[in-house]
Amino acid sequence: MTCNLLLTMLLLLASPATSFNDCEFLLEGGDPFTLVCKAQVSAELKQSFRDRWIKANTPYWIWMRHRPVSQMLISFHHSAISPCENVTLSLNCLHCYQSDTPGEHIEADRIHCHDGRFAYIVALQKTCGMNIECDIEHIALYYAKRGPPESSGAAQTVPWGMGWLWDSWMWPE
After folding, report:
1. 71 Cβ contact list (under 8 Å, min separation 6)
2. CB burial string 63-94: b at 16+ within 10 A, e below
3. Which of 23, 31, 73, 76 is deepest in the core (most CB within 10 A)?
4. DSSP secondary structure letters along 37-93
5. How far, rounded to the nearest angstrom, does the alpha carbon of residue 100 sit from its chain's CA centroid?
């Protein structure tokens, strides 16, 4: 009974702000993320992982920075940062480094941050032709389009405080 009450309280208190705090590493260091590769999500990758926010053939870009530790930013779908060689975050906007062009305003339901790499990230790196030997301490997944595609049957975004559920559909079946 106590576990059920605790779980219910956690679900009620879940908010986008709690998980956005996991993205603080994007602000650290001031060094920009540098583009390392761009690719498209293959049908095989889409079938292997349950990322409901994208479809097969969705383009994605991966930027890295190595100070103070290795960090990765992955962006799905075309956006204002797609053509950027270097990306930074300021005032809640991802934008091209040293550019006056407006960037991408970050909303909590469109960015998901994690400590450490997991199978989905490794698969995205391999598809992109990246070396997967490097340890990555922090990862941000940014979805430039809002919410899961309508065809998936999922009409709502995943609440931030339920990141453990979100992760569960990112692992291979």
Report:
1. 25, 26, 33, 64, 65, 136, 137, 138, 139, 140
2. bbbeeeeebbbbbbbebbbbebebbbbeeeeb
3. 73
4. EEEE--HHHHHHS--TT--TT-EEEEEEE-SSS-EEEEEESS-TTTT-SEEEEETTE
5. 24
Locate 49 and state its tokens. Answer: 């992982």
Q: Which residue has the tokens 């097969």?
A: 56
pTM (2 decimals)?
0.75
- Which letter does DSSP use for residue 116 in this model? S
The per-residue pLDDT for range 47-97, each reduced to its tens digit, is 899 888 899 999 999 999 987 789 999 999 999 999 999 999 887 889 999
Contact indicator for 26, 140 with CB cutoff of 8 Å: yes
- 1-54 confidence digits (pLDDT tens): 444 333 223 333 333 444 566 888 888 667 899 999 999 999 999 989 988 889
Closest by CA position to 141, among listed 104, 107, 105, 111: 111
Q: CB of 52 within 8 A of CB of 75? A: no
